[in-house]
Design goal:
This protein is an alpha/beta fold and about 425 residues long. Helix 4 packs across helix 5 (about 135-145) and helix 4 (about 115-130) crosses helix 6 (about 155-175). The chain has 16 helices and twelve strands. The protein folds into two domains: about 50-175 and about 415-430, 2-Layer Sandwich (Enolase-like, domain 1); about 190-410, Alpha-Beta Barrel (TIM Barrel), CATH 3.20.20. The protein starts with 16 loop residues before the first helix and ends with a helix.
Length: about 425
């Protein structure tokens, strides 16, 4: 997998690489608004852009039907089935439309379908209407002022749907893809990783074969809390696919002692990285794992904002991050994190939150633009049965093309949206 290089020069807003990295503290609303003013001044020459305003913001709560078993979609008895998401449609006063998608998973983080919908409708929408859709920094400042952070960014998954919609709208209004607006390489393909989360070891070989049948040669496995199970799972995968990239993700499920014990053993099997071995707040444990040096330690849930990443780097607690635009508040913060990782010489991996089509397009755009070198754990096509896109993503030989059209590069079928909203209401009513 060839690295396609770092962004060059300045982005569409005229920010140099140094200025972009200086914007790491998304919690500081004041600096954000100052930079937003600079951003607006740079765009002053474009009459169309300077006159555009956000006129409408609509939400569509849905539940995508799922395929197979994925542990994060198994809720308490009576919980509606499916993958929850809130589609976000932003319309400018000239009729230009941008689509985004908030993708909460209650068993992965605290945000829910209901909280995402109510937060957008009651708190974020009022502060965004009438704003310049090109002023992404200002939009994030307004959202962070409306929903304040606790330890890190408040409601980042919810905010990411709006961020994506604004990126899509700005791209469509300017006729440019995200990569073009960012001054990055365009096009290409992203190699995918097949997700394995067997309930028993006996299921493993069948799941591997299904992935191989669909053209996948790289696998990510869900591990923790049982180290004996995890070791045998990784042995089975490594034996079946000896040359594939095998990525172990604990989702914070080990305690420090168990993580320190299993890391060298996973390395001996041939596992190249260990993602989120501990709960996010076990900083002393991460320091010990980093000092042990048995495996590169990759953060996920523990790094939400760029400011979080800066602290983890300063404290020498990680070797890289599994990026998720949906996790960190959208594409603007995600770009900052990738830039920080690249400048620090740390690993940049690509992951997702079982992203449906719109959110998946955002992830592909980011990973393609920044030259992702490792297989991406983007398992939406693996576990989701429906799409609202006119042309749904379909992996070929374990790869997906990076969209090259304006904005996110995809078209939403609004009839599919209406049908899925109706279907989702029926699903909730029957739960």
């Amino acid at each position: 997998m060839k690295e396609r290089g770092k962004p060059r020069g300045k982005d569409d807003a005229g920010h140099s690489r140094r200025e972009f990295l200086q914007m790491a503290g998304v919690g500081a609303v004041g600096p954000l608004l100052i930079l937003s003013a600079k951003n607006e001044a740079r765009r002053k020459g474009s009459k169309r852009m300077s006159k555009m305003k956000i006129e409408r913001l609509e939400i569509f709560p849905v539940r995508y039907p799922t395929i197979g078993y994925f542990k994060f979609f198994v809720g308490p008895p009576g919980t509606p089935a499916g993958r929850p998401a809130v589609l976000v449609k932003v319309t400018a006063n000239d009729g230009t439309v941008g689509w985004g998608e908030s993708v909460p998973i209650p068993k992965w983080s605290y945000e829910t379908l209901e909280s995402a919908a109510s937060t957008i409708e009651n708190y974020l929408k009022p502060v965004l209407l009438g704003r310049d859709p090109f002023d992404l920094l200002g939009a994030h400042g307004a959202m962070n002022n409306a929903i304040a952070p606790s330890f890190s960014t408040g409601a980042p998954i919810t905010k990411s749907g709006i961020d994506m919609a604004l990126h899509d709208l700005a791209g469509k209004a300017s006729g440019l893809s995200l990569a073009q607006r960012w001054g990055c390489p365009t096009g290409g393909k992203i190699t995918l990783s097949w997700t394995l989360n067997p309930r028993t070891l006996d299921e493993t070989e069948k799941l591997i074969e299904e992935g191989k049948r669909r053209g996948y040669s790289n696998f990510n496995v869900k591990v923790a809390p049982d180290p004996a199970f995890d070791m045998e799972l990784c042995r089975i995968v490594k034996k079946s696919v000896p040359d594939g990239f095998l990525w172990a993700d604990a989702n914070g499920g080990y305690d420090p002692a168990t993580a320190l014990e299993i890391a060298p053993k996973l390395a001996d099997i041939g596992v190249p990285v260990l993602e989120q071995p501990l709960p996010s707040n076990r900083l002393a444990g991460y320091r010990e794992l980093k000092r042990q040096g048995a495996l590169p330690i990759i953060m996920d849930e523990g790094v939400v904002s760029p400011a979080d990443l800066v602290e983890f780097i300063r404290l020498d607690l990680l070797d890289g991050v599994a990026m998720k635009p949906a996790r960190c508040g959208g594409l603007l913060p995600a770009r900052r994190e990738v830039e920080l990782l690249k400048d620090a010489g740390l690993m940049f991996l690509g992951s997702g939150l079982t992203d449906p089509g719109i959110s998946l397009a955002a992830s592909l755009a980011l990973y393609g633009a920044y030259g992702l070198r490792f297989p991406a754990a983007l398992n939406g096509p693996q576990f989701l049965a429906k799409s609202v896109l006119k042309r749904p993503f379909k992996p070929v030989n374990g790869e997906l093309p990076v969209p090259t059209g304006p904005g996110l590069g995809v078209e939403v079928d609004e009839e599919k949206v209406k049908a899925l909203v109706t279907e989702s209401r029926t699903t909730r009513a029957s739960a």
